[in-house]
What does this fold into?
Amino acid sequence: MGTGLVQPASIREGEQALVENKANCEQVWREISSYVDGEVDTALRQTMEEHFQSCKRCASVLAGMRNVVQLYGDERMLEVPAGFSRRLEKRLASDVAAQGKRWSSWSAWLVPVAAMALIAGSVVLMNSLTFKNFIQSRHAQPGNNIPPDLVVVVSDGSKLFHVPGCAFIRDKASERTMTAKEAMRDGYVPCTRCLRQYLKTGLTPPSGQQFAATASEAEEERQEQEVDLSTARH
Amino acid sequence: MSEPDMVLINPEQTQPAREQDLILNVQRGKNELFYELVRPYERRVYAAALAILRNEQDAEDAAQEAMLKAFANIRQFRAEARFSTWLIQITVNEALMRRRRERTVVMEGIDDRRRDEEAEYAPRDFADWREIPSEALERKEVRQRLAEALATLDRKYREVFVMRDMEHLNIQETAEALGISVASVKTRLLRARLMLRDLLAAGWEQGWFSRLPFEKGNKPW
It folds into this structure.
């Protein structure tokens, strides 16, 4: 390796070239690959071209390198073993077809989605089994925390019971007073407005909302309660 | 004649469009078109794998596996990239991964690092270059000689040379495919080309290319 650099003839010729062309053979060899690829700037290209004209050795290196690039760059140099194409086609036909059945474009996303759904379902199930009151609709709360002896009011046309004076009591003329325990025994459910403090909702109501409803909102709410008492929507 | 018949079709221009169509169709689930898409590159894929693995059977296995990985990831291919480059990159990754599993190659790697510290390579043969015409490639014997010369190079030079001069990746793509710097690609490419030139010159003198129709005084053209 590198012995070519110390050959007297090479050095003499390199020096001569340096004097004549401002580039010696070593410099030319260093750049000759980039030169072949057309990746040297104009000034260097010109200097090298001049050098090749006067230096037979470097001209020989250049010709040889171009020949190498041309020969090896030929498509015919890309040979494959006998039967390669057939075996490749066969393998692709079987494996790609198999993958295609399982992973066709329209169903490919279904698998991860199904997996996510399974995981999500498991989490929900686990939560429902172990953390019963963690996240539940406030509408679904039983009145477990309401003092049984609390005086409450029920009225006709509604299955809600209220604290006396609640703005959401429907048909005040038919009001009847009883204890919370009696109301729940009779199938009444607590009003989420006036009895909110007793319901563990896990949600912090916006301040001032509890009794800030306007008369029209109260009317809407009554209508909703009439439509479906079991799924009261607020 | 109707107007479309008068339009000259330039294969250079229509090929990428055809390829893009194939890619889109495969991406949309027409899996049966995948082989048609990769067939023009099967030899390049094999050559890339062979450059790294140096064993025909391993190279074929790696080439097949790379094709399957390309299929599995075809939806990640973006049109702004060259498909051939993307395919070669997958192949190189597959081959390099397989080679890392081969314990014997570790020794070759150490050997290569040692040699890398040596002085620059200088050409040895300055005789008038006797060109080997590309027609010579019609002869299996010549192709085999060239392949043998290439196989004698250290892997670091062989890999860069194959990616650049046989796979026709550019310098940047070669650097990315092999995970080395652009400067390393340039240095190794220069050295590989110089070494192959010397090997071919020596081969000529040893009669590798003798008895060929293009030999001096016996030119068929």
Remarks:
- Residues 110-130 of chain A form the longest helix (21 residues).
- Strands of chain A lie at 151-154, 160-161, 176-179, 189-190.
- The mean pLDDT of chain A is 71.
- Chain A has eight helices and four strands.
